[in-house]
User: Which sequence fits this backbone?
């Protein structure tokens, strides 16, 4: 490290470090609390004072994935020995498992809709971004602004006509409808981000390829696409995270078959009272993948949140 | 890029297709590439928008399909713009908007300033701080209700620990005076990293040579801060403020899960109010006019935002 | 300041965009201020004017 007059002093660094670490600890405390609550027993989760040290239990996870009914001791006796470890856990609470819960389906819906819309969005977005980056498109600035402004729209305000349109087309509460909708919402982000990434690839590579006898299409997918791979991957992760997290459209336009996890998780209730460990378990399974993706994305985070305007 | 001989590519592509593609001008390729995107956006964004504008001049109610839809002109707009309940909703939104922006800018800028001191491990801690803003607001909002529980909630416990107040004596989301602050705290926790990241980019864009020159001129650190740092970061800060402003103006998911608009109407932000009008009372025409008002406001702010965006891009 | 007025008179993009932005900002403040309901009533038309104006003037030459 070179020493210059602008290099902060050692003491300053220490002081800054301590404050930032302090803030980071405060900021992840609620997240750690969610993860910890998922492994508590229902009684531990609502004890006072809040328990930091507790006996880990899988009750939350068992309750998350199963539907249970309360049973009397006689009924439990009549059932005989539990067959599996999760049945044992349910029995210990005085309940019998009556079937799997719908969390699995909802989670699967989130995966289908998330990946489906991301894939579609990347195909359309890469093509459009390439065209905006390389060709003279009439009214380019207006189109780009129009594309961006579609993302700024309040979802509830757009939801009224979309609800009516989907109802007429039979797309309400279907995977296809949600995939198309999320693709449309994400397109703005992917076009703007990818345009930034493609702008950075020197035009000379393609020109060389064109002179070598490649067609435009070949130059696009043999020269530009491989070079833009990191950009495309990080844009895809951004689109995926958005579709994964989306709540407003999901709660208004889906109710059963195509409902995703975010509208479902808050509705989880236990047998008699809110089952916080189950909610926490559901939230943990849902949130942790996003945290992993955030770590993967960290170099491109800033671009993603500013539509590609700020490039570090 | 792999070096593929052109003959091989030519052989791999059927000749007729290759010829046809080669024959396409750049202009037509541009259109083929852009058209699907524009078409999808027209179908899912613009067509519904036009429909909303049309509905806003009618008394349509989608839950009564048999009733005749009448043209009512500007009546919906007149009623909304003279309704003091909606005006109150706007003020609840304003309270949320102003305080979240103030807190996020202050904390976010300060954090960015500290991180820019380049202490060891700053990358790791930055990533940790960024986590909340990437998560699903609805799920997080739902979980904050648990943290806010009187007696058993972690938040109440921590406050009680430091101030000595009885943790069962106050309820952040049940109290009329505290609920507006409950949503401000949760939103600040979630979105401060956003402002921080943008400020950090601003700080890192300042070339060291400017500070070195100021140092040679014997300018004090304090003076350097106000005459170099702040003006140079300002465009970035503008960007962050506008974006958070737009996002929080239309805030729905986090708050609806956290308080559901209650108690009373103290945290009924405009989007929550609109959702009730449109999807619970089913006053489609009326709520369409409401939606158009929000549209135009957001659209206006978005055009300023794009201007700010281009300003930052030039740096 | 004279540059600004000059730009307005010669229909230049920069100063006109400033005027439109100011109008939009004014409309948003009027929409959410707690002082007078009359201001709230006329907020929408102000924002609308500003927005339409912005779209038009952004096509003026630099």
Assistant:
């Amino acid at each position: 490290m070179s020493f210059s007059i602008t290099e902060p002093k050692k003491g300053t660094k220490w002081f800054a470090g301590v404050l930032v670490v302090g803030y980071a600890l405060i900021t992840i405390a609620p997240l750690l609390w969610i993860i910890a609550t998922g492994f508590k027993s229902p009684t531990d989760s609502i004890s006072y004072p809040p328990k930091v040290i507790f006996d880990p239990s899988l009750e939350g996870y068992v309750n998350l994935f199963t539907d249970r009914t309360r049973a009397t001791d006689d009924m439990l006796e009549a059932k005989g020995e539990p067959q599996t470890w999760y049945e044992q856990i349910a029995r210990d609470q005085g309940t019998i498992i009556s079937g799997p819960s719908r969390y699995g389906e909802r989670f699967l819906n989130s995966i289908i809709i998330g990946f489906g819309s991301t894939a579609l969005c990347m195909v359309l977005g890469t093509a459009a971004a390439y065209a905006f980056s390389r060709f003279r498109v009439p009214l380019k600035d207006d189109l780009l602004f129009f594309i961006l402004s579609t993302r700024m729209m309040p979802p509830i305000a757009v939801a009224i006509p979309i609800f009516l349109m989907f109802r007429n087309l039979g797309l309400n509460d279907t995977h296809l409808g949600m995939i198309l909708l999320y693709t449309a919402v994400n397109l703005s982000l992917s076009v703007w981000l990818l345009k930034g990434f493609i702008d950075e690839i020197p035009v000379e590579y393609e020109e060389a390829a064109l002179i070598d006898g490649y067609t435009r299409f070949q130059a696009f997918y043999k020269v530009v696409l491989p070079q833009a791979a990191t950009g495309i991957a990080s844009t895809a992760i951004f689109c995926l995270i958005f579709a994964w997290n989306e709540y407003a459209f999901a709660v208004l336009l889906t109710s059963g078959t195509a409902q995703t996890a975010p509208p479902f998780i808050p509705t989880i209730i236990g047998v008699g009272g809110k089952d916080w460990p189950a909610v926490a378990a559901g939230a943990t399974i849902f949130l942790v993948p996003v945290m992993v993706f955030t770590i993967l994305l960290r170099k491109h985070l800033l671009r993603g949140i500013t539509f590609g305007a700020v490039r570090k | 890029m792999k070096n593929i001989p052109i003959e091989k590519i030519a052989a791999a592509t059927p000749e007729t297709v290759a010829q046809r593609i080669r024959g396409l001008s750049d202009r037509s390729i541009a259109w083929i590439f852009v058209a699907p995107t524009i078409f999808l956006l027209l179908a899912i964004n613009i067509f519904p928008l036009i429909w909303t504008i049309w509905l806003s001049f009618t008394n349509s109610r989608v839950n009564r399909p048999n009733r005749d839809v009448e043209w009512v002109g500007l009546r919906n707009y007149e009623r909304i713009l003279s309704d003091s309940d909606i005006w109150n909703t706007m003020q609840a939104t304003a309270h949320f908007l102003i305080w979240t922006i103030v807190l996020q800018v202050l904390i976010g800028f300060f954090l960015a300033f500290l991180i820019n001191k380049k202490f060891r491990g700053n990358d790791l801690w930055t990533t940790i701080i960024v986590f909340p803003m990437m998560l699903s607001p609805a799920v997080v909002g739902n979980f904050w209700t648990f943290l806010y529980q009187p007696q058993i909630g972690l938040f109440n416990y921590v406050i009680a620990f430091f101030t000595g107040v009885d943790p069962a004596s106050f309820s952040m989301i049940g109290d009329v005076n505290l609920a507006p602050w409950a949503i401000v705290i949760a939103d600040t926790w979630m979105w401060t990293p956003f402002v921080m990241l943008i400020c950090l980019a601003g700080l890192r864009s300042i070339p060291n040579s400017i500070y070195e020159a100021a140092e040679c001129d014997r300018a004090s650190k304090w003076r350097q801060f106000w005459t170099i740092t702040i003006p140079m970061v300002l465009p970035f800060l503008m960007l962050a403020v506008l974006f958070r402003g737009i996002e929080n103006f239309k805030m729905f998911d986090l708050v609806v899960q956290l308080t559901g608009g209650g108690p009373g109407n103290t945290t009924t932000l405009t989007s929550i109010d609109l959702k009730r009008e449109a999807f619970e009372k089913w006053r489609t025409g009326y709520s369409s006019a409401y939606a158009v008002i929000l549209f135009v406001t957001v659209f206006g702010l978005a055009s300023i935002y794009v201007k700010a965006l281009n300003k930052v891009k030039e740096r | 300041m004279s540059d600004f007025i000059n730009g307005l008179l010669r229909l230049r993009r920069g100063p006109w965009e400033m005027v439109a932005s100011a109008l939009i900002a004014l409309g948003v403040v009027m929409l959410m201020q707690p002082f007078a309901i009359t201001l709230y009533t006329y907020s929408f038309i102000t924002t609308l004017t500003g927005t339409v104006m912005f779209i038009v003037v952004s096509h003026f030459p630099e």
About this structure: Chain C has a mean pLDDT of 90. The CA atoms of residues 27 and 48 of chain C lie 8 Å apart. Residues 2-57 of chain C form one domain.
